[in-house]
Amino acid sequence: MEKKEFTGSLSIDLYECEEIAPPSRQEPSVRKVGMICCNLAVEYSDLRNFKSKTGIAMKKLEYELELVPSGASIDFVVYVDGVKQPGKSAKVCVVE
After folding, report:
1. What local confidence, expressed as pLDDT, does residue 7 receive?
2. CA 81, CA 64: separation in Å to the nearest integer?
3. Distance between CA 15 and CA 30 in Å, rounded?
4. Residues 76 and 88: beta-carbon distance below 8 Å
5. CA pair distance 79, 70, nearest whole angstrom
6. Which DSSP symbol is given to 28?
7. Interatomic CA distance for residues 29 and 42, integer angstroms
8. Which tens digit of pLDDT belongs to each residue from 70-92?
9. Integer distance in angstroms from the first to the last C-alpha of the chain?
10. Residues sharing a CB contact under 8 Å with residue 92, sequence separation 6 or more, in sequence order
11. How confident is the model over 32-50, as pLDDT tens digits?
């Protein structure tokens, strides 16, 4: 990732499938239901250095998404390089 490509945010698509054994790739039974959008408390300079297969030096955004059931809702927690991002930084955008 180049500096001009880093916006300080992260978007993760959410999909659902009602199959008992969901497919390993997107098929007609898989549909997009929303997106998690998160503003990150990370600067471009904080991202890890990474070399591509062709040897080009780049930066890499490593993240984990944790889904925490809370009654009838789900809380989303985003970690970047093992550091929990500030509360309320993630929101869900539902696809109509």
Report:
1. 86
2. 8
3. 7
4. no
5. 19
6. T
7. 36
8. 888 878 888 888 888 886 656 66
9. 31
10. 14, 34, 35, 36, 37, 76
11. 988 888 888 888 888 999 8
